[in-house]
Amino acid sequence: MKQLGFITGLPRSGTGWLATMFSQIPNVCCFWQGRFYFRDCINSLYDELKEGIRPWYTWIAHRKMNWIQSEDIIKTVGNRNWISEEDLENKFDKDMEEMMARIVPYFMLKAAKDTDELIINKDTVRHPGTLIRLVNSLPEAKVIFLKRDIKETLMSSVLTHLQYKTNGGIGIDPFTEADLIQTQKFIEGKVEAPLTKESMVKHITRMLKVIAEAEEIALENPNFMILNYESLRKETMLSLSKILNIFFKFPVKQSDIDKAIMSTGGYQHKKHARKVGNITLDGSPGNLTKLLGEDINKEIDKILKEWSK
After folding, report:
1. How many CB atoms lie under 10 A from the CB of residue 76?
2. What class, spelled out in words, does domain 3-27+117-308 have in CATH?
3. Left if phi > 0, otherwise alpha if psi is -120 to 50, otherwise beta: which for 145?
4. How many Cβ atoms are within 10 Å of 143's Cβ, its own excluded?
5. Where do the domains of the chain lie?
6. Which among 15, 120, 127, 236 could disulfide-bond with 30, CB atoms 3.0 to 4.6 Å apart, if both were Cys?
7. What are the tens digits of pLDDT across the range 132-178?
């Protein structure tokens, strides 16, 4: 029986690395950025299903193309070969979680190969509420939440945002143009922090709310696992073995896990290291926090302390 799973976490928390390793395991299919539970897709789906603004299958076509990069899918889905008219009509009377409970598995199973037994969607979580929608609509699905040091996550996010925007990309929601300017000044050594204090408090609070939501879910849901990024770096083989063999109950040979790890650049994950200005993003624990000045570190520690009360 095919099994569905999700790799989630805040942006820049290691979800991409873990998903890349998963995708190298035999009979495992790992899709990227389905974004089923993001607000833009939720709103789009509501618009299409409830208001009839545009055909529902255009949403499916967009998501499917995002995964397998095939123009032919537009024609296939455009002809509504995926789902019956009766099923389509029934969705108008369902609430969102019920709709997602039917749409997401249908989509993931259709997109996977017949030989795939474990089908994973990797998506980052930017806002509170996303994880709750996921576990409520698919309670049987296994979910992994990557948790990384909050300072490292923040630093990697804002630096990556700058890199994406500089290269003409869309950046990382919800960072702003003002954040971009501040980060650029930080790289140039003109300011001591990549964000203003006000913006830093806002983003850290948002991140902490997502983490708190994950921790609350994990206490009650055996299908929800929090994985520490630093532990994954330190004990990659052991972590992957536990995730696959114990959490997913998906037997995998140690040799296959080793090959998957080596395919991403080895146990220290150096393959995807890159530079933003003079700053190297290589995922090493503590690599980015040390770039923050003593006063800024104290400010963040103060936010974390107040949050924990």
Report:
1. 16
2. alpha beta
3. beta
4. 22
5. 3-27+117-308
6. 120
7. 888 988 999 999 999 999 999 999 999 988 888 887 776 666 788 88
